[in-house]
Amino acid sequence: MTIAPTIAVDTRPAASDHRNLDRAARRVLVTNWRARATVPATKLYPHQWSWDSAFIAIGLRHLSPTRAQRELESLFGAQWHDGRVPHIVFDPDVPGDAYFPGPGFWRSGSANAAAVPTSGIVQPPAHALATWATYRADPAVAHVRGFLPRMYPRLAHWHHYLLTRRDLGGAGLASIVHPWESGMDNSPAWDAPLSRIEPAPPGSFTRRDLAHAPAAERPTDLDYGRYIRLASDYRDAGYADSPSMHAFAIEDPLYNALLIAGEHALADIAAAIGRDPAPHLATAARLTAALVSRLYDPAANMFFPRNVNTGELVRSWSITGLMPMIVPGLPVARELVDTALGNRFRLREACPLPSYDLTAPDHVPGQYWRGPGWVNTSWLFWHGLRLHGETALADDLRDRLLHRVLETGFREYVDPLTGTGHGSDGFSWTAALTLDLIRAA
């Protein structure tokens, strides 16, 4: 869907633009709703995705607080016994071969409490943040439904899994064990760690994504071969987590920043239901110290992922290194703003913020996470700017994001300089976070 722009780039969107954009965003979310949850896009992503649902709930709360609550409840209804929240919950009404890898590949069996088919890996923990935001949209409805008392133990169990089973480096931070877990599948940040992985043979899998998006905008076959190798090895090991069995193990800034922000949200949730918030605040403080000491490079004013298997920082200038901006009390927030304002990310011009260094020779403005801008990461940075008192920059980013969506429509990802849309259209988190940005205007 493309909505023709009616404003200049440097002009605040008019009230009529907001009304039109609001109605169009609501249509996307209504169209993509499936009984219990929202699909990210009708063709390419026909199931429920984990961190998508968190961002979708943040927008849905403005349309229907009850539906936003159900979005999160549906996802956590597929939570595994060990606490993990799978990155895909498969819709039994969708043919098993509609998406690869599908339920037959993952073989989740009875590992999750509801015994519904899911994947076996996870995604960034944005859920506590979304739960608290959803509750605040309508506390009365949430109270009647018992939303927070039901979500709190599930969220705490999820975080406990990440803080224990996924502390592969032994320093307190959670590790991802697959590029899909980062949410930024083919980011250049993962090129070096992935280069050690022997890919699955090309004939051993069939890609469904290329039926719905051009190959130039998606990960390569070599990428997919390595993704499938990592996923099948993890599956065949019974989804066991230990440093010795993971060929790909990364302490990711975005992942851990969301975990920290989630612990702050869990503290608020705990207080709201009469529980002690202090343990969550203590965990957040400990994780923040570990995040800065292990992943921040003061010479670069940037966070970098750490490869647990080598102990080395992965010095790739992807947007993951800016995402700790969402951490309350982050001691280097101003330094991250300076980095975002520089030539690599061009905060005052690029929109959405590029997923990867604009000055890098391998920046590709239309290929998934190798350069395009995504609304969710820009929304997170906007949230962080407001959190740390950078009001003028936050307001400017919000206005330009809304204009970009007016110009381009609800695309999955966008060339951050030209505004050319890529990937799926009618993308749910783009629509949902647009609703949230409108409400903040």
TrEMBL record:
Transmembrane parts of this sequence: none
SUPFAM superfamilies, per database record: Six-hairpin glycosidases
UniProt keyword annotation of Methyltransferase present: no
One Gene Ontology molecular-function label: Glc3Man9GlcNAc2 oligosaccharide glucosidase activity
InterPro entries listed in its UniProt record: 6-hairpin_glycosidase_sf, 6hp_glycosidase-like_sf, Glycoside_hydrolase_63, MGH1-like_GH
Cross-referenced Pfam families: MGH1-like_GH
GO biological process, one term: oligosaccharide metabolic process
The keyword Cell wall biogenesis/degradation belongs to this UniProt entry's keyword annotation: no
Keywords: Glycosidase, Hydrolase
Residue ranges of domain Mannosylglycerate hydrolase MGH1-like glycoside hydrolase in the record: 45-430
Family: Belongs to the glycosyl hydrolase 63 family.
Name the record gives this protein: Trehalase
Lineage, highest ranks first: Bacteria, Bacillati, Actinomycetota, Actinomycetes, Micromonosporales
